[in-house]
């Protein structure tokens, strides 16, 4: 009988990945909105077939479609793609290939059934989700963002655009995509006649966001096709000016892909130029923050001296301290801690909109 869940110890799998024992792999992402009658059945079907091909990664399926970030053994990539294209609503779907890929992006396969493939906080029945914004290829995107009538908004979270964003983009200070939509709508009221251009990592956040903006009265709504990942590929292949500065944050063990040589953020502990994310070594904290090599050595990978003291306690004592802590909440604080004094938001929403409101 085929297995429907991973049964190996995640620590062993992670060590195997970092030791390079998983061979050459290709990291890809894709999404598709489609009506699925039985997400659980579809989930199990994918897990069985993808396990046979050695696929690793994180995938969400729901009644509204699929959202996948995965890695595939290089020798099985064509077989994976051919199988994927046999699924009617995924036939010839665009696969976003990683810009920088050392094959160490994922160490296990997880496929979960969710209410939504992206937590957006929207009630889909209240608006036409198919009335999306105009998709822009890299060349057209470069042209429209130079227009003085264009508002360019980064639809990602604060810890993502802190290390990289497009030149001139407004970067809202938000923790989640769910937080961003009502906040942005409230601030851009009265600017419905402007060109509203949005972008995100791979495009999925802008699918719903653009339809929501049009529902709220914005007439000229655009979104970057394939997000930052596809933009970087098109810019290179078509010899276009790259208007993205810094790194593109990604949600896997690589943390980011370098798009330009610019380092636009600082170590959260000492303030030196740095754009390397890490999680605090104290598993009871696990805070995501930016840390340079010098501070990594000084703090032993921790975000504070307090956490540094914790990791030297006996493991049983550490477990006691972690007991009852909602680790998810700690993890998703994402760089917000009063003792980290060098966090920056490059062009906050209110500040970035001033020139359009005067």
Strand segment count:
14
- Please, what is the average pLDDT? 92
Alpha-carbon distance between the termini? 67 Å
| Count of domains | 3
Which sequence of SSEs, written as H and E, runs from N to C? HEHEEHEEEHEHEHEHEHEEEEHHHHH
Structural class comes to alpha/beta
For this structure, the quaternary state is single chain
Q: Tell me the radius of gyration.
A: 21 Å
Question: Which residue ranges are poorly predicted, with pLDDT under 50 across at least 5 consecutive positions?
Answer: none
Fourth-tier CATH superfamily name of the largest domain: Rhodanese-like domain
Largest sheet: number of strands, sense, barrel closure = 5 strands, mixed
Q: What do we call the CATH topology of the largest domain?
A: Oxidized Rhodanese, domain 1
The count of helical stretches stands at: 13
**CATH architecture descriptor of the largest domain:** 3-Layer(aba) Sandwich
């Amino acid at each position: 009988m085929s297995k429907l869940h991973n049964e190996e110890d995640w620590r062993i799998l992670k060590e195997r990945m970092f030791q390079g024992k998983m061979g050459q792999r290709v990291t890809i992402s894709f999404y598709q909105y489609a009506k699925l009658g039985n997400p659980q059945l579809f989930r199990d079907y994918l897990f069985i077939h993808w396990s046979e091909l050695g696929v690793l990664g994180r995938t969400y399926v729901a009644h509204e479609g699929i959202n996948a970030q995965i890695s595939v053994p290089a020798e099985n990539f064509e077989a994976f793609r051919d199988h994927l294209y046999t699924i009617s609503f995924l036939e010839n779907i665009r696969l976003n290939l990683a810009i920088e890929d050392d094959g160490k992006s994922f160490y296990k396969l997880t496929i979960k059934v969710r209410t939504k493939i992206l937590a957006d906080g929207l009630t889909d029945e209240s608006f036409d989700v198919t009335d999306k914004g105009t998709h822009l290829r890299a060349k057209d995107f470069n042209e429209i963002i130079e227009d003085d009538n264009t508002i360019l908004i980064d639809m990602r979270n604060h810890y993502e655009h802190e290390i990289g964003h497009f030149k001139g983009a407004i970067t809202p200070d938000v923790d989640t995509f769910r937080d961003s939509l009502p906040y942005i709508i409230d601030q851009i009221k009265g600017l419905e006649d402007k060109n509203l251009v949005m972008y995100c990592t791979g495009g999925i956040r802008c699918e719903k966001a653009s339809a929501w903006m049009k529902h709220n009265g914005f007439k000229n709504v655009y979104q970057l096709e394939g997000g930052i990942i596809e933009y970087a590929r098109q810019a290179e292949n078509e010899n276009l000016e790259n208007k993205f500065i810094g790194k593109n944050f990604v949600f896997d063990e690589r943390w980011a892909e370098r798009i330009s040589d610019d380092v636009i953020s600082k170590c959260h502990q000492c303030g030196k130029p740095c754009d390397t994310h890490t999680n605090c070594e104290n598993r009871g904290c696990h805070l995501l923050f930016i840390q340079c090599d010098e501070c990594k050595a000084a703090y032993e990978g921790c975000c504070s001296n307090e956490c540094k003291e914790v990791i030297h306690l006996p493991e049983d004592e550490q477990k006691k301290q972690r007991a009852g802590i909602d680790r998810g909440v700690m993890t998703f604080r994402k760089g917000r801690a009063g003792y980290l004094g060098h966090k920056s938001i490059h062009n906050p929403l209110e500040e970035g909109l001033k020139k359009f409101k005067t």
